[in-house]
Amino acid sequence: MNAPVTTLSGDWIEIGALEDIPRQGARVVKTASGCIAVFRTADDSVFALDDRCPHKGGPLSQGIVHGNSVTCPLHNWVISLETGMAQGADEGSTAATAARVEDGRIYLARTALAQRVA
Ligand code: FES
Fold first, then answer.
1. Does the C-beta of 56 come closer than 6 Å to ligand 1?
2. What's this model's pTM, rounded to 2 decimal places?
3. 8-17 pLDDT, tens per residue?
4. Which atom in ligand 1 lies closest to the alpha carbon of residue 73?
5. Contact of 58 with 76, CB cutoff 8 Å
């Protein structure tokens, strides 16, 4: 699912409704400098990472979410949704963006996105 950034307000940018993302799924938010994958975990936590695996750029938004991690669909690296760091013996990281949910709406940190959406 792709969606443009729709609303700018304060320090947070609203990108849509929590219910738009299935549990253990993701949606992609397109920005001027790349796509951000927004993940919803089984317990309704929300995390945002660049939609590029630190290994060879695989689309993390198409990976499998388990706990607070996602497994890349290309070569099965496991990436922490909280930090963007590769887990286990693998090394590397992808940029994480602060995300929060309020009244069923998802917000991403404006400061982290400022350069992207400017
Ligand atoms: S590109 Fe993600 S594991 Fe290889």
1. yes
2. 0.87
3. 557 899 999 9
4. 2
5. no
pLDDT at 9: 55
Task: Tell me the DSSP string of 56-96.
Answer: T---GGGSEEETTEEE-TTT--EEETTT-BBPTT---B--E
First to last CA, the chain: 23
Strand partners of residue 58: none
- The radius of gyration computed from the CA coordinates of the chain, to the nearest angstrom, equals 13
CB of 21 sitting under 6 A from ligand 1:
no
Q: Does any ligand 1 atom lie closer than 6 A to the CB of residue 59?
A: no
pLDDT, greater one: 1 or 95: 95
Report the C-alpha gap between 49 and 43 in whole angstroms: 18
